[in-house]
Write a structure and sequence with these properties.
Arc Repressor Mutant, subunit A; seven-stranded parallel β-sheet; 17 strands; Rossmann fold
Length: 257
């Protein structure tokens, strides 16, 4: 089978898939070739904008059914105004896991930012963040905070790049709190910007315990880059579909009307 024929067959299999996702493993079995060969094919096809390369396989560029494709970051203030009461409920629950004497990572997320007003006033607890806005809010509360520095991305109010990665690598976190743009059975936890993905992944790898904070609107969505699978994080959310309860360690909190 020629390379062109295999590409066409992969696209056909994607179109026929109910979730418009195919795994590397299933494609390797179908074409009777190695998984490394399939990965190279999928990356090449993604570079040619034929499909979307996601964790574990590939997805159609245009999802059908209930799946959404979120490729662009929304402005920080726009995200801050989305579901504010739900964010506060999730944040209040997350803050309960903060213990005195811990070193804690806070992701540049509006839901994580909502935690700050609920954090206990421990004096020997240290916070690290890649968000100058979160750092300012922590300092205003008299909490000890270190901010990564690096290239500032205004859209999400987050530091990115090698300097931020190097800074994070110096710490060992007891616990980390992260936001996500998408949650999907195959793509897992995703974010639109590969550079922010690198920051999230690096910080998450240095955390002993990991919590992802997300409201129900993030389910069945895929963004460009996967920063974590479902193995380590505990998800704190307001509402989840049954299919996710069997996939993710989860804490569901009810909003107060």
């Amino acid at each position: 089978m020629s390379l062109k024929d295999r590409d066409e067959e992969i696209l056909k299999l994607l179109e026929e898939s109910p979730s418009q996702f195919v795994s590397v493993e299933s494609l390797a079995g179908y074409f009777k070739t190695s998984e490394s060969t399939i990965r190279r094919d999928l990356q090449r096809m993604a570079n040619e904008h034929q499909l979307l390369r996601v964790h574990g396989g590939a997805a159609s560029l245009h999802f059908s059914g209930n799946f959404k494709l979120e490729r662009l970051d929304k402005e920080y203030l726009e995200r801050e105004r989305t579901e504010p009461d739900i964010k506060k409920t999730i944040a209040r629950e997350a803050a309960k896991f903060v213990r005195e004497g811990s070193c804690i990572y806070l992701d540049a997320s509006t839901t994580v930012a909502s935690m700050i007003s609920f954090l206990p006033a421990f004096r020997n607890t240290y916070y690290v963040t890649n968000s100058p806005l979160l750092a300012q809010k922590l300092a205003e509360r008299g909490l000890t905070c270190y901010v990564t520095g690096g290239e500032l991305k205004l859209t999400t109010n987050a530091f990115i790049g090698p300097y931020a990665l190097d800074f994070i690598g110096r710490f060992n976190f007891d616990i980390g709190f992260f936001g996500t743009n998408g949650i999907h059975p195959q793509a897992k936890f995703t974010t639109p910007d590969p550079q922010e993905c690198a920051i999230k992944s690096a910080a998450l790898a240095k955390c002993r315990m990991v919590y992802v904070l997300a409201d129900h609107t993030k389910f069945d969505s895929i963004s460009t880059a996967t920063f974590s699978d479902f193995t380590r994080p505990t998800l704190i959310t307001d509402m989840a579909d049954d299919k996710y309860r069997s996939l993710i360690k989860m804490i569901e909190v009810k909003t107060i009307a």
